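so the lab meeting is tmrw and i was supposed to have these ready like two days ago... anyway. pasting both below. for each one the top line is the aa sequence and the line under it is the structure tokens. i havent really looked at them closely yet so no promises
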Amino acid sequence: MLQKWIIILVLPILAACSGQPLQTGTSSPALPKVVAVETFLADIVRNVAGDRLTVESLMPVNSDPHSYQPAPRDIIKVSHSNVLVINGAGLETFIQPLLENAGGSHLEITASDGLPPLPDPSGEHPDGDPHFWMDPNNVIRYVENIRDGLIQADPQGNQFYTDNASAYIVQLQLLDAWIVDQVAQIPPANRQLVTNHESFGYFAARYGFQVVGSVIPSISSESAPTARQMAHLIDQIRTSGARAIFIETGANKDLAAQISAETNVKLVANLYTASISDANGPAPTYIDMMKYNVGQIVNALR
């Protein structure tokens, strides 16, 4: 089911229904307030909600949803909202306890609903790989789900959300075409990825990369590799001829740096995967994030 009602707070969800339709997208106190869990997801939601709704990110910039520990301020933020948007597919394991602490009722939109997940190579994650957003074509489904959820929460905004979603989907299609063109600069033999953890499966499948291995051989960034797993990754890098190790911002660089030194491959330590940057950084939106990451990958491998 695209949306489901869960317990979180007692507030009128559809207060906007009692008034006259708004002639512009300007936000009103009577309209639903939205919280999206991750920063990249909040940006995607804003592109659909426009200036009609207030959209906040639950997690701050540079937070990792795999290891995030909610703070009291998060309960307050959620309790002041009417709609919660999650990535889904088991990414946000902390959400249910947070909702139980907040109490009340809330409209939940699962952005990834309906997308078939890739299996978790480690077998640790029963819901499969939740990193759907690493392929912009999957984000088109996110946008459709978010559009439908916002229309459910605010029926009077139907045309506004529909138009915004259509315009943003065009941008995502252009992003996908741009990535294809950029990746074409990399010789096919060099299209090999070694990452911090297994978060690039959808990206690799869409754009013709081979994932050689990961420093943390798990969908979750919280796992820790054994000495045997590290030795195996070193052998994989040497055998494959992979040219770089890519890790995301905020990740511990120590293990990747050891492997980089052992294999004599470059370490690219500043990709944005689970979070966008702040407004002054290189990746302040989802589209900027993807373009920045692709630029780093192309520069390292071409």
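ok protien two:
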Amino acid sequence: MIVIALAVALAPFIVLLLNSIRPANEFLSSTAPFVPADPTLDHYRTVFEPGADTMRYLANSLVITAVTTLVAVVTGALAAYALARLRLPFRLSAIIGLLFLAVRFYPKITIAIPYFLLMREWGLLDTRAAIIIAHVSLTVPFVVWLMLAFFEDFPREIENAAMLDGCGPIRRFTQIVLPLTTPALASAAILTAFLSWNEFLMASAVGPVAAKTLPVRIAGFITDKGTLWGDMAAMSSVIVVPIVIFALFTQRYLVRGLTAGAVKG
């Protein structure tokens, strides 16, 4: 079963890699072999040629993902802690939490045009800041809901003991709560980075040229002369590499964070 699951998971990526080294003429042939008969790196050369600006798109994606992750995790963690600890009347905490959840469920296409008009009004259209604002608005609700469960399960006795020692709310949060919820914060950061790195719709709406990210660049290989399958596969392979490296270095935090609290003594 493990082998079958692994094969299903890796099959699309293997096909992607094979297509990235497949000669252009094989894409037009109905009898082309599964493994390219004459592998070539021409598609990678095209992607990384000086006029392709791939490194600029890569830099845009890295900066946008890093800033989005930092802002979303910090803001979401603060909001989640407030919702978990404040005693609001009329179950306002639950209502606010449901509003955050609602933001995650409405179709993003419905806010693409409003965001475009808003960024144009603010003079931020086609900038990294515009995409970061859009991504933060999409990822903060996710962070809030993820962190809310951890903060609600966090033993209040530890905070009460800190209060007896004279710790204020900010000190309790930064020096006691956050260090003990590091796996949850790491999980939120990793999943937020994945969402921001792969997001296409909002990035294409508010950053179509100068602030273009790698996912948006892939769509550019669909031209009026046809789809450049080889170049698209090569660019897709490039996109996968940084996030795979990031996942390999941080997977232990992701597993620990997602399984925290699953077993209680």
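from a quick look at the 2nd one: The first helix runs from residue 2 to 20. DSSP finds twelve helices and two strands in the chain. will dig more after coffe
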